Amino acid sequence: MRITRRLRRGTAGAATAIMLLAAPAARAADTPSDAPPSGTRLTELVNPFIGTENEGNTYPGAAVPFGMVQFSPDTGHNTGYDHSDDHIRGFSLVHLSGVGCGLGGDLPVLPTTGDVTQTDYATYAAGFGHDDEEASPGYYRVGLDTGVEAELTASERTGVQRYTFPATDKANVLLNAGQSLHRTADTEVEILDSRTVRTAITGSGFCQDTEPYTVYTITRFDRPFTAHGTWDDGKVTAGSDTGGDGAYVRFDTREDRTVEATTALSYVDARGAAGNLRAEGGRSFDAVREAATRTWEDRLDDVRVQGGDETLRRTFYSSLYRSFLAPNIGSDTDGRYTGWDRKTHRAQGFTYYQNWSLWDTYRTQSQLLSLLAPREARDMAISVIRIDEESGWLPKWGYGTVETNIMTGDPVTPFLTNAHQQGLLHGWEERAYRALKKNADGVPPADSPAVGREANREYLADGFAPYVKGRPHAKPGDSDYDHGASATLEYALSDAMLAQFARDLGHHADAKRYAARAQSYRHVFDPSTGFFRARDASGAFTGPADPAQSEGFHEGTSWQYQWLVPQDLPGMIGLIGGKRATNDRLDSFFAYDQLLAAPAKTAREVWVNGPYDYYNADKYNPQNEPDLIAPYTYLSTGQPWKTTDVVHAALTLFTDTPTGMTGNDDLGTMSAWNVLSSIGVFPVQPGHATWGLSTPVFDRVDLTLDRRYYPHGALTVTAPGTSDTDRYIQSARADGESYGRTYLTTDTLRSVRALDFTVGPRPSEWGTGADAAPPALK
After folding, report:
1. Inter-CA distances, 723 with 81, 305, 319, 720, Å
2. What's the CATH code, domain 61-299?
3. I need a surface site. Which of 393, 499, 522, 722 has the fewest CB within 10 A?
4. CB atoms within 10 A of CB 763
5. At 595, is the secondary structure helix, strand, or coil?
6. What is the three-state SS of 136-169?
7. Residue range 441-488, pLDDT digits in tens
8. How far is 137 from 267, CA to CA, in rounded Å?
9. Which of 550, 506, 500 is nearest to 524 (CA)?
10. Spatial distance between the Cα atoms of 452 and 408, rounded to a whole number of angstroms
11. How far apart are CA 611 and CA 622, in angstroms?
């Protein structure tokens, strides 16, 4: 019966078949190099269940690109949905792809039948199975063991639900305002009329306590309910119009078994939610679903690949899909938004965005969005500048309307300097620079929620951030003092990028000062070990001398952080002892000899694996951010073919299965790594306009680009015959002209139409010339 109904409604894809594919993505040599069959929609190549198991922490629910609403099931996992679970507690409105701690999950809604006697969603949760579940971009459907079928879709600011009930006079929809994935501090529920429910939910918390935020919702059903009630502290009151924790509404489905409802969201006020409902509501479920599918098809169609088998294409397009899920729209349809000063502002001439996992995304995802979604990326950068102007400081890890201070270093600097380097800050350059300069040269005041560069006083005075074990946290979140060695490396990287920005704007004295500070990475290099090492407040090196057992590095070891000097790899190579010594160390780090013999096996069994396996290792960790750039270090050591070997081995970790994600996705960070590395163009100096080159995994990739930023409006990357065996670049050509460097600049990307690689079965001399490597920043 459900199969017949799904066919009638035209549901795209078969998620069960997708999830059963267990083999790693195959390369071009395995099948003919064909494009997707004519008429195939790219949305059919997306599997939203990838990463929903083994702590990838993705969600399978419905969203549109960068939408405020992510309408998805919650099964009891702290970040929402886990493919190993078999009960759904509710379908809630807010999720972030790949976060490591509970966040969002506001207003879980669940259809039930019978009397309402339970108010804890862990108790009234409904069972389900994956054989009766499916998802595609903008759509999710599941059959519950209660006999109810639930379907979800979304627009930018609304979630639309359709429930098909058994024939009963007690078909309920439970709206639970009091439970979520974070800490719910205060809630209000109000039945406005026989079709409408309004809530206000105040919550806090992400990994640690944070400042509270409030989200407002309004839900409009497509027909009157026959009864309703609310609950407080577990007590259900039939007929009540107001409550603190939740509400239920009831329908008679003995004749008409389908109930539809639209829920609008606002971070401003109830008026904002109502306005969003008026602007985006009023359409049928099928109309909203089709619009969401068209939106995703248009977005995915900007990248067309040829070559590889269907599994490889599914893995690629699923990563591309996840790369466009965040940051998220924060302003209402009238332009109003809540700033970090808790005041209402209006975005004029841009869309305001929120949710900033900057420590993660500054390395991959922000560059991918600059390339493929520059209009949105510009608005995102403007939104970050507005955060500074309204709250007094730039963000580090922002959720909704508040700073969480999760993670360390200074990630906002390369994020904004990247926007400048990609040409996105026209008219905002000086405003951005003022904010970055304040952030780079100071520390937020005590009454600011932000921590900024928390160890900046010591860094500016002594050239390093000290590692102070056990230091009390002055503010919620992470502390740079807990991770002084890696914080020093992050500060120095940011100083290098800020120096380039200052030079571009004519602030030459500042540029010289920041460029000098960019060499601060040298202050945490211990010549006695040949590795970076934490220093205490007195300046003495501290912690174990073994770089695999090192302390003072955030989610990593000295082995894994040693390559985080993209601003000056020649200098880093000199500290290690030259290119030969550096290549020997890189080969050990990547277990290169084993990798050549068995790349996929090495990636899964020798490298660091496990989503939270950060410490006590001397090998590459492809599942965490500090190592994302590391494979591209070979571009600077005269052995660029090894970059391809390592990158292509790492790509085998991405599969078309629920476990097919390398660690937490972190708002598209890992997904963007997959997309960029598969294309063969990767940002090797995050915050600057440098793109490293490696062998693409597809015969051809056609990128449609925004002509306002890329005059040709397109870029084609070809590597005919690329495969597991023929993976080494023999030569490269840019618009037909021989190209021997291992990198491109953004200006070059703007000027060329085609980048063509010739590949073969053995390494070549390509990219080994004296001027082939990405240069150090001055």
Report:
1. 35, 15, 20, 9
2. 2.70.98.10
3. 522
4. 18
5. helix
6. ECCEEEEEECCCCEEEEEECCCEEEEEEECCCCC
7. 999 999 999 999 999 999 999 999 999 998 999 899 999 999 999 999
8. 24
9. 550
10. 9
11. 10
Here the tokens at position 678 are 């598969």
Spatial separation of the C-alpha atoms in residues 140 and 63, rounded to whole Å? 10
Chain centroid to CA 335: 25
Scanning the structure block, which residue is given the tokens 């049928």? 284
The residue count for the chain: 778
Q: Tell me the CA distances in angstroms from 157 to 54, 96, 151, 281, 328, one per residue in order.
A: 30, 15, 17, 9, 10
Distances (CA, A) of 451 to 395, 403, 443, 476: 9, 9, 7, 9
Distance CA 531, CA 696 (A): 32
Non-local CB neighbours of 50 within 8 Å, separated by 6+ positions: 56, 58, 315, 318, 322, 654, 655, 656, 657, 658, 660, 661
In angstroms, the Cα distances linking 352 to 335, 349, 376 are 8, 10, 10
How confident is the model at residue 38, as a pLDDT? 54
67-94 pLDDT, tens digit each: 999 999 999 999 999 999 999 999 999 9
The token pair at 290 is: 């089709």
CA distance readout (Å), 583 to 558, 573, 650: 17, 9, 19
DSSP state of 710: S
Q: Which neighbouring-strand residues pair with 231?
A: 236, 246
Categorize the per-residue pLDDT at 207 as very low, low, confident or very high, splitting at 50, 70 and 90: confident
pLDDT, tens digit, 9 for 90 and up, residues 511-543: 999 999 999 999 999 999 999 999 999 999 999
Helix or strand or coil: residue 392? coil
Q: The pTM is what?
A: 0.94
